[in-house]
Amino acid sequence: MAKAFYRLQKFLRRTQFLLFFLTAAYLMAGSLLLLQRTRLVIQQGSHGTSANQALMVPDEMTRVGIADPRALQNPHPGPGLLVGMDVLQEPALDQQHSPRWLVSRNSELRQLRRRWFHRFISDQEPMQTAGFKVIKHTAEHKGTYIGCFTDDSRERTLKGAVFYDLRKMTVAHCQEACAERAYTYAGLVYGAECYCGNMLPATPSKPEECNSECKGEKGSVCGGVNRLSVYRVEELQAGARRRRNVIYRGCFRAPENLTDTFPASLIQPNLTVEMCSEFCSKKEFPLAVIREQECYCGYPTGRFSLRDGADGLRCSRTHNTSSAAEGKYCLVYQTPVQDTRCTDRKFLSTKSKVFVALSSFPGAGNTWARHLIEHATGYYTGSYYFDGALYNKGFKGEKDHWRSRRTICVKTHESGKTEIEMFDSAILLIRNPYKSLMAEFNRKYAGHLGYATDRNWKSKEWPDFVNSYASWWASHVLDWLKYGKRLLIVHYEDLKQSLIPKLREMVEFLNVTVTEDRLLCVENNRDGNFKRSGAKQKDFEPFTQEMKDLINRYILMVDEALRGRNFTGLPREYVPR
Questions:
Q1: What is the pLDDT confidence band of residue 66, given thresholds at 50, 70 and 90?
Q2: Listed residue (199, 221, 223) closest to 151, CA to CA
Q3: Sign of dihedral through CA atoms 528, 372, 495, 309?
Q4: 45 confidence band (pLDDT: 50, 70, 90)
Q5: CB-CB contact of 80 with 61 (8 Å)
Q6: Rounded to an integer, what distance in angstroms lies between the CA atom of residue 535 and that of residue 462?
Q7: Are 118 and 46 in contact (CB under 8 A)?
Q8: Global pTM?
Q9: Does domain 356-530+542-564 sit in CATH 3.40.50.2300?
Q10: What string of H, E and C letters represents the secondary structure of 277-319?
Q11: Which letter, b or e, does each residue of 70-91 get, where b requires 16 or more Cβ atoms within 10 Å of its Cβ?
Q12: Which of 38, 119, 183, 534 has the fewest CB atoms within 10 Å, counting from its CB?
């Protein structure tokens, strides 16, 4: 009996061990599978959403109806107002969160936030700086490493051009950018910020204090905390120098006293545009002004604002009038040098008492408006979302919590009573829906700077996109008109055409005082880093007549709602198309 009991006990012990082993193996296998799936999700997220993920529109939404204009008495759109089946429907204004296009949009925003979160996590990976040890220069670069210098953010020596790449900055990337802008030195700080200039910083530092590895290149030094790694830029070949971006600004009436207006000048027989541009670039001025054999360098100022151009014939030597001979007119060129009078930005030192939104429909120019506001006020703007691409290019407010109140205003595309009433006031940016829809479609399929392919435009995604997003364009404006507490309406087209007057109006709305020279600097740097190059013309009309009828009705609806609130109506170019 005892022997049988012993055998049973021995068997149970073995079984217990076997069960423990199998359980551990199961858990390990499950963990490995989970890690593999997580990795796959992150990789997919970094490539953006697929066409099917980007916008999930059910089959019955392929046709959109327009509501009775009487719905404008209550400007919050419901599913009957903005999304219909095959017939016109009465608006159901109380069903605020039920439209299928809104559910689809919220699903898309959640996908965007997940992708941005993964990018955020990847940005937080610790730099391999190994304490305060000096990082060896293992990577090969053009140019020569000069040394480590103290970086004073309040008074930088290398301030000719400034740009950021908080994920992919390399020494070569910084050097090439500075060389294209005709600078002698390239300096890097914090592993991700690039500064250009023609004079070395005054205060050298210990080599080991430059201990930040470049974000995009292992083994390369990109400064440190308040420390600048400075490289001498390799001189471009003559052909490359000629290709530098020197832009003709026009013919202007010369100020009465040029020497008082412009800080630097050169008198040179047989003066050429290239000679004057090179001279002003070395002096780190963004404008090169030519009058006969005289070259002047400076900035746009109140004395010389570049607003009132003259007929180009007045500056032509082949049409040398008496006024031109007397030196009353001059030619103006934009050098590769950046105007840095408005590039310094920071967070608010104390929390803002007024919570201001910068609200727009996607594709309406919100990023461009943020660029203008940041450079005009000198303060960062925040965002309700997190866009890694914007953060990596210098919009540091992207990583700041949107409710921190440390930014001058907060970007949002949200609508609805709850989301709007969180803000004390708002700048509502409105753009032509035809242009907004095309811009957002380009962004969805090709990023901030790319263009969707012809295949995208001719696929079923485009009509589904228009059917869903055209209604969102209208509902966004109508919601903010209804629930917004204090609004400043800005039309994208007006801002583009009359930049300084409209920007001054926006800055005053934000309760910030700025100088005229700073606004002129913003005008000189008006495009920013997220302007699509050129206007890629398509050889076909992307909007069908059915789409145009739909969009035009929404335009008339929004125009009537704006006028009903005593705001200026939509610009005439919006309707009809």
A1: very low
A2: 223
A3: negative
A4: very low
A5: no
A6: 19
A7: yes
A8: 0.69
A9: no
A10: HHHHHHCCCCEEEEECCEEEEECCCCCCCCCCEECHHHHCHHH
A11: ebbeebbbbbbbbbbeeeebeb
A12: 534
Give the pair of three-digit tokens for residue 341: 């009078």
Instruction: Tell the residue number behind the tokens 């145009």, with chain if given.
Output: 548
Could you give the CA distance from residue 388 to residue 166 in angstroms, rounded to a whole number?
9
Please tell me the total number of residues recorded for the chain in this structure.
577
Q: Which amino acid is at 436?
A: S
Return d(Cα 71, Cα 282) in angstroms, integer: 62
d(CA 328, CA 72): 57
d(CA 277, CA 316): 19
* Amino acid (one-letter) located at 487: L
Q: Which residue has the tokens 């001979």?
A: 325
Two structure tokens written together for 145: 């490493």
3-state SS record for 160-208: CEEEECCCCCCHHHHHHHHHHCCCCEEEEECCCEEEEECCCCCCECCHH
User: Letter for the amino acid at 35?
Assistant: L
Q: In this predicted model, what pLDDT tens digit does every residue of 420-453 receive, in sequence order?
A: 999 999 999 999 999 999 999 988 888 877 888 8
Q: Is the dihedral of CA 137, 141, 146, 151 positive or negative?
A: negative
Q: Are 210 and 232 in contact (CB under 8 A)?
A: no
What are the extents of the domains in the chain? 145-232, 247-317+326-334, 356-530+542-564
Distance CA 428, CA 562 (A): 12
Per residue, what are the HEC states of 396-453? HHHCCCCCCCCCCCEEECCCCHHHHHCCCEEEEEECCHHHHHHHHHHHHHHCCCCCCC
What residues have CB less than 8 Å from 263, skipping those under 6 apart?
283, 285, 297, 298
- Rounded Cα–Cα distance for residues 202 and 217 (Å): 27
